[in-house]
Amino acid sequence: MAEHGENNGKPVFDKPKIELHVHLDGAFRIETILDVAKRRGITLPVLDTMRDLCTVAEPSSLTEFLGKFHHYMHVIAGDREAIKRIAYEFVETKAKEGVIYVEARYSPHLLANSCVDPIPWKQKQGDITPDEVVHLVIQGFNEGEKAFKTKARSILCCMRHEPKWSMDVIELCKKYRDDGVVGIDLAGDESLNCESNPDHKKAFEMCPISSRLTGACDPDFTKHPLIRFKQDNANYSLNTDDPMIFNSTLNLDYQVAQKYMGFTEEDFKRVNINAAESCFLPAKEKKELLDQLYKAYDMLKDTSF
What we know:
The chain has helices at residues 30-40, 47-54, 62-67, 73-76, 80-96, 130-148, 166-175, 208-213, 225-231, 250-261, 265-278, 283-296, and strands at 17-23, 99-106, 151-159, 181-187, 192-194, 204-206, 236-238. It contains 12 helices and 7 strands. With 305 residues, it is of the alpha/beta class. The radius of gyration is 19 Å and the shape is globular. The strands form 2 sheets. Strands 1-2-3-4-5 form a 5-stranded mixed β-sheet. A two-stranded parallel sheet has the order 6-7. Residues 16-205 form the Adenosine deaminase domain.
């Protein structure tokens, strides 16, 4: 990953951060996948081979990227302990990256093995419904927040290739809207973000490393559209998208932005304030989040609405 500008792992922006675009099922720990597989009696390759199978190292295509999920999703899907564990560990990872608020998106149906047709990942019929998946993820997020002081909220994904799941997703968003679910997304070969309330501030969710490795933009970071967004003072955030698959971290995306796109500490502050203003939290929680950032950034600002 040295070509992406890693700086010996030292954060280039060692202050609280906000992340708005990361897929939970693209952010598992490979070590956890192997551990769960062993417990469940699922045969997988050794760690280094598994890492090669599950990651993208060079610019490719979105289709090749999506194929990576087939190597590991069957291990986590349909297992209560595993689903709750990956949610908890996700919060721990984000806390170590300095993230104080994160919105994680996932398809409940892709982690279920009951009340879903077709049952994904060639699983056998089980008893974990999409509804229980959401409940388990929220439990993991809540326990992670208590342990690591990082707040995580869910965005539920409709899948472009399985439109019959969409009404279920809408109903789950309604059911859990006051219990940790803040938005809905359309995922698959293309992505369309849907706002959860009419007064939401729209923003571009930029994922530099992801957009390079999926072939979404020029592989030369000095030609990345984020540079123009920065020049135009557009409203955008910095995000990882699928850090396990890209073998990356949020800090690495920040390093890329600094090294190849000229981002300064003041730019990073503005990015995170914009992200907080654009998140799907209710107004009161959003104000608290902004106050936390302004204090950490030594900035005075009235965030009253």
